[in-house]
Amino acid sequence: MPEWKIRREDAEFAAPDVATLQKWAAQGRVRPIDYVHNPMLNQWMYAKDVQELRATFAARNAAGSGGGEDYLLKGSAASKSCGLAIVLFLGAGIILLLASNSLIFQAFASLVGTAAFIFGIIGVVLYFLKK
C-alpha cells in the first residue's frame, strides 16, 4: 500500500498507512493546515480536507485540543513576516504622510501614505484580534 506524505513548511515525512496518519493527527503531530498527499487520489491537499482525518480533527476540536488553525500567530516564520509587514506599512505611511508637506510629493504621498497607514492599522487590529 502506498504511504501518505505530510508536508509542513520545508519538511516532508511519511506515514506508512492511514491508521498511523490518524494516530498522528490525534496526537497533534499532523495539523489541519499541513499538506497531505493522498495516495489513493494522487493529490496534495490540506489535512483538514482529507476524508480519513475529518473525524479525528473533529474529535480533537471537541476535546479542546485544537487543530493548529491559529499557527500563524504562534511564532512561525509567517507570523514574523506578518509582523514585519505591519511595521513596514505603518512606517511607510508615517514617512509618506510627513513627506506630503513637500509640494512635489503632496498629492502622491498623501494618498499613498494614508493608504499604507490605514493598512498598517488594520494589520495591527487583526493581529491582536487573532491573539
Question: What would you say this structure looks like, in words?
Answer:
With 131 residues, this protein is of the alpha+beta class. It is built from four helices and four strands; from the N terminus they run E-E-H-E-E-H-H-H. The chain has helices spanning 18-27, 51-62, 77-99, 106-130, and strands at residues 4-8, 11-15, 35-38, 43-46. The protein has a four-stranded antiparallel β-sheet with strand order 2-1-3-4. Helix 1 runs parallel beside helix 2 and helix 3 (77-99) packs antiparallel against helix 4 (106-130). The two termini are 42 Å apart. Mean pLDDT is 75; it is low at 67-76.
Features:
single chain; 131 residues; alpha+beta; 4-stranded antiparallel β-sheet; 4 helices; 4 strands; 53% helix; elongated
In short:
This protein has 131 residues and is of the alpha+beta class. It contains 4 helices and 4 strands; from the N terminus they run ββαββααα. It has helices at 18-27, 51-62, 77-99, 106-130, and strands at residues 4-8, 11-15, 35-38, 43-46.
